[in-house]
Amino acid sequence: MIRNMENNNISDKKAIRKSILEQRNLLTETERKRASVLITDRLLGHQWFYQSKRILAYAAFGSELNLDMLLQEVLDCGKELYLPRVVGEEIVFSRVYSLEELEIGYKGIREPALDKCRKDSGDIYLFDENETQQDLLIMPGVAFDIYGNRVGYGKGFYDRFLADKEPLRLRSIGVAYEMQVLLQVPWDEGDRKPYQLIKV
After folding, report:
1. Which of 1.10.3720.10, 3.40.50.10420, 3.40.50.10490, 3.40.50.2000 is the CATH number of 6-193?
2. Percentage of the chain modeled with pLDDT above 70
């Protein structure tokens, strides 16, 4: 059920984050596992998944919608998997060959190893930003609205990453639990929202 932001006394991004994260943290393990299965099925059946050679996604942290089953499927079917690592004020997507190689990084989030996220590594592991026609970006978020607008965690990592990558944004999907979707969320001119949204 899509909820009305005003009816929940939510008026700004900070309040939205607090409210939605509190509710998301209350989801039971059964609810989380069910949602993980559903989102995996929905994404595997999406035409963009079939058409894409490279999948940019995320490794879930805390009560985030877990994509680990999907990430493993990406690896098993021979597609290239890229996950983000925070480097300074930016996120850098690095290729991952096994989920076991992830290490604990920024704020406890599982990330690719740091030595694969540096420019001096020869760029062999880094996402090639010049080729986006066969790519799919799967975006996390704290809250979304029915227009696809997104409230993240407040650091603007995805907004900056997508600022000069409109072709990639046009092949991006936001994923969320149903309780994360509101009628409307505030947005700024610099915000970059996913092109599609899938809620489970």
Report:
1. 3.40.50.10420
2. 86
Contact between 132 and 171 (Cβ < 8 Å): yes
pTM: 0.89
Q: What is the pLDDT of residues 32-61, one digit of tens each?
A: 999 999 999 999 999 999 999 999 999 999
What does the DSSP assignment read for the chain? Answer: -PBPTGGGT--SHHHHHHHHHHHHTT--HHHHHHHHHHHHHHHHTSHHHHH-SEEE-----TTSPP-HHHHHHHHHTT-EEEEEEEETTEEEEEEES-GGG-EE-GGG-EE--GGGSSGGGTTSSB--TT--TTEEEEE--SEEETT--EE-SSS-HHHHHHTT-HHHHTTEEEEE-GGGEES-----TT----SEEEE-
- Say which residue, 115 or 46, is predicted with more confidence: 46
